[in-house]
Every structure is written in C-alpha cells, then in structure tokens.
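Aim 2, interim progress. The first record below pairs a target sequence with its structure tokens.
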Amino acid sequence: MSDHHEDDHHVHREEFHHDPIAHAEVHAGMTVGELAEEYGSAGVGAANIHKAVDIYAEMLDDDVTNFFGLAGAMVPTGMRKIVADLIRDGHIDALVTTGANLTHDAIEGIGGKHHHGRDEQDGKSMRDHDEQLRDEEVDRIYNVYLPQEHFALFESHLRSEVFPNIEETVSIQRMTEELGRANSEVNEREGIEEDAGIAAAAYENDVPIYCPAVQDSVLGLQAWMYSQTSNFTLEALKDMTHLTDLAFEADKSGAMVVGGGVPKNYVLQTMLVSPSAYDYGVQLTMDPPQTGGLSGATLDEARSWGKLEKAARNVSVYADATITLPLVVAAARERIE
C-alpha cells in the first residue's frame, strides 16, 4: 500500500479561518477572569460570554459614557450590590431601570429583606402553594419570598421621607434622585446592616436614574395615590432632554443592557435623536430573537435602526442574567484593575 497523502484538492474558503476549539480547562483556585478566558476556548454561549467580558472591559474605560439598562427581577434576586458598586466606582453614567427594581432596592435600604423561597411545595399544586402564600401574606418572585409588610414600610418611607420633599411638578428622574437621598439618609440614620443600595449610590455620585415606566410598579402606584391628595405630578418628557444631552455630549458611548422591555428600548432609542450611535453594546437576556420582540432582539438588529454604529463592538448573551451579570462584571473588573 502507498503512504497516505493529503487530498490535493483545495477548496477556497472565504469564510473559514483556522481557529480550532481549544477545550476549556478549569482548575481549583482559578479567578473569574481566568475562567472567562477559558470560555473563549469554547463555542456557543461560552464564546459569547468571553466576548461580552472583552467588550465590557473596553466599555469601562474612562473615555466611554456608559448607559446601563436594568430590567427584570434583578434586585430581589440578589444583584443589587453589583449595580450599586458599579455606580460608586464610576462605571455607570446613567441608569435606566424599572419602578419594581427601585421599589425592592428601597425596601432593602430601609430595613426590609427578601428571603430564599421555593417555586413548589411537596404535596401541593402550584395554585395551592401560592394560595397558602397569599393567606400568609407573602409575595413570591419565582423562588424568592417577600413579606407584604415590607410594602407598608415602603409606603411609609415614601410619604414621610420622599414625597414631601419634592416640588409639585417634577421629572421622574428628579423623584428617583429624591428617593436615593431618602434611602441613603434613612439607611445611615437607622444603622441598617444592608447596603443603602442602587438609588442611594446614584444620588451620592450624581448619577441620574431614569424610570420611564414608573407607573408600572408599587412605586408608581404610591406616587399616583399621593397625587390624588396633593398637587404632585410627574412629567415624563422632562427626562428625555437630560438623557439625550448625555448622549449628545459623549465622545464614545456604551450600552450594557440587562434584560429587555422598557429599560432596554429607552437606553437604545436615545441614539435615534443623537448625531452618533453606541460604540459598544452588551446584552444579557433570556428572551429569544425569533419571536420578533424587542426584549430578545439582537444588538445587530439595533444596528439597522441606527442605535449602534456600523463598526460597534457588540454581543448578545442568551442566558439567565443572575448567572451572567456577576460573571461578566467580575471578569471585566479583573481585567482593568
């Protein structure tokens, strides 16, 4: 038999480049940054995590103005301090979030707590399980429990510490600023063990918080109820001038979008009325793009709208954000510090 020879037929490959999968290696004692590097050896979601770390680390440069969108149940599920620390360290220049996240953030800051729970109970149907929680006055967010008395604490906080100090007609951003001030002061005055939180950190560091769908939350409900017995009014359009000015003045800009919904679109649509678009974008979501909804839409799709520059560096990571956010932030911080 003749020796084996390579096939002499060579196909011209315009797309293919020699870049073999180098199987990830993990070991005890490795850092998060080292783990993220190993993700880059792999494919599918691991490769996207690696790219997200790479882009986010570049976004954290002082020359980049960072817009951060925070949707979903990120505060009650334990992601609160990650965001607050990013604000304190100068890595968020504008935060767009939900009234729900601000509600849960304030509850923690003034002495309330969320608790480990469960999404099922042996011997009970899901309906029976949730009916029992209803009778016991406990609210459920998947496997997180929140006693309802904390909402009464929050209402008292708003009516005694927040609303009386706000002018009659204000922007939503002005209200969130006042909420942050109150959270910070009460947290210190009462010696609360838990961190003062996201809104407090934003207030203390002059970072604006925008909450375009605030009425879709307990915070919004309380603001509406207060408006029924006072001249208090929120003027939503005022926020857009402030946010747009930030975009106009940015030399380079980046969007970190956690979850979808209103916070995601509010962050991205800002560039529709700006002379430039985002230079960087990272999206952490679980919503698929195939349904055509905004929450799962890729950031490449946003490029077609002019929300991202044609040459922007961007990636979408499709996985549970309570897993991906800490990993991406920790690895990016490790790289820049």
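The second target in this work package is listed in the same format:
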Amino acid sequence: MSTYRPVHAPHIPPVVGDGRTPRWTRRPPQSNWGDFGPDDQYGRLNYLDAEKVKQAALEIQTGQRFCLSLPLNLPGGNALNPRRHPPVIKPSTRPQGPGMNFALSQENPNYTDVISDDYAQIYLQYSTQWDALSHVGSHFDVNGDGIDELVYYNGFQAGIDILAPKDLPGMDGQSRAKALGVERLAEQAIQGRGVLVNLRKHFGDGHTLVSGSMLKRVLEQDGIEVEKGDIVALYTGFSDVLIGCNGQPRADMAETVCAVLDGRDPELQQWIIDSHIASLVADNYGIESVPGRPVDGSCAFLPLHELCLFKLGMPFGELWYLHELAQWLEQAGRYRFMLTAPALRLPGAVGSPVTPVATV
C-alpha cells in the first residue's frame, strides 16, 4: 500500500482521505482501483520500489547515457495539436529594463556583474512529456446510483479533486489538480528498468495499427521479456520523422506516419493488464492511434488512455526521443536499460515536460 505525502499548492488544500468515507462503491471493469489503498495517487508507479530500482541498476554495464528528450520547441507550430503552442522565453524585468545582458552597474556603479534572467510560457504537454493521472478521466457510475460522474483514477472527482477555472472563482482562470497532479510522479522520482521494443524495425515508417497479437509476435521474435514494474518504451521512428520536418510538421502525421498501438484491441488491453508494467512511453504523438479506431456507439476517443490512466493508474510518456538509444541497443544485442525520468514537481498540473535519461 502506498503512503500519500501531500504537497501543498497555494490556496488549495491537498486531498487526504479519511479511510472511512469511500470515494466509490463501484470500480470500472479492468481497473485496479483500491488495490494500492483507498487514497492511492501513484497507481502502477507503486511497482517502482527499491528492489525494482536495484534491478534496473544491474543494466548499467558501460555507463553511457542517452538523452531521451526532443528539444522542447518541437514539434514546432501547432499543426499536430491546435490547442498547444511552442514555448515562449522572455527576460525577467527590472526597474531599468529587461533582465537580459543587464549590467548591474546601472543599479550600483560599483557592481561589475552582467545578469541574464528569464522565464518561460510553456504548454506542459507540447513536446517530450509525462501524462499525469489527472490528464484523462471518464464518465462512470462510481456510486451505483445510475448516475454517471466525471471521475479520474481511484474515483477522484471533477469539480472536487480536479478543479477547472469555474471551480476556482477569483483565481484568474487558474486550474488545479488537488489530487493526481503531476507532482505525484515527481514524488516517486521515476527511476526503473526500461525495456525498448523496436516497432520501427518490424513495421517501418508506414502507418501501422499494432494489435496485441502483433506486439506479442514482436516480443517473441526479438526475445524480449517484459516483467512486472518494467517501463516499456516503444520506438516507432515518429520523432525521427518529426525532426526531419524542421519545425513544420503536417497536421495529419499522427494518423499517417509510423506505428501506433491499436488501443481498441481487446488482446492488447489484456496484455497491458496482465503484464503489470509500471508505464508505457513512446516516441510518437499519443502511443495509441489518435483518435482510436472507429467503432459504433458510445466509446472513448482514446481507449488506451482510458484503460491506463483512468483504470490502471499508469502514466504515459509521449513524444520521447528514442532513436540513438534504439540504435545502440540493437548493435549491442540488448533491449533493457536504466531509465531516470522525474517529472516537474509542479503541484496541480496534469502534465509535465521531461528530460529522460537512459543509462546502459
């Protein structure tokens, strides 16, 4: 069972359950709600315990490191997602002007220092990122009263635990995840054993929906064993193609380029459930097909996000850069590595830029 360690956001008290008032009486099918405790906010990251980290450390044989982050100004523009924009970097301000190449002698003639100080306006899930468990929820009747609620992992509720601007009057349009914020990922100091699956080697750069049976076949052909608590990294080549766009990606790339998981495939969903992996990361836009494969009737737009973030408490890493690591592992005849990938400890956010490091 996990221990919840609250981190206080300004003006917003943390969520601390009393262990007596249940947050839900019904949990969704396929979910693990409550398995790590009634107030758990770490989900499958609970598997990243000291033993798993020591197991990961055994993968370090050469000490070579690989940066698994894209430059955070990529993809470039907002063609891939019109709601997310590249970072804007500006200097801080001082009474005498912008704080870039600022001679402190302007404030005191005895000072010889030259100061540069800046800040960033950044969409937290624009580039290489973690999705926190507050990123995707669903409609579900958690109380068994026939009324669907807007809820997230382990029954945390919209409007109570995950707050939109309308829930925070007087806070100038701010939002806040009181529960399941990305700071939970930071608290876990994500470090564990990565397992790279080279889908590009098997499927090339054409757009391919990878089913559960196809994934299992790749694992068998490449002799890859996935164990409880592993972080599985999918190399598809998408980020390589993206880099080649020189900051001007096509709007349809997520639907036309490289391999993606078929999030609606029941066999794939069952493999993820049975594998007990701690997380899935990939170098593509959404890990799964965006949107999910068309079906009739009511459904999730992103079924794998719903399964993993909402039901299993399993964070996603998206738009990672895996090319150089994948090449090295292929040449070395390996597929495992030590992964270090802490999120920003930014209370209340639902996602975070990340600069993951693989050590081999």
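The radius of gyration is 22 Å. This observation will shape the mutagenesis plan for the next reporting period.
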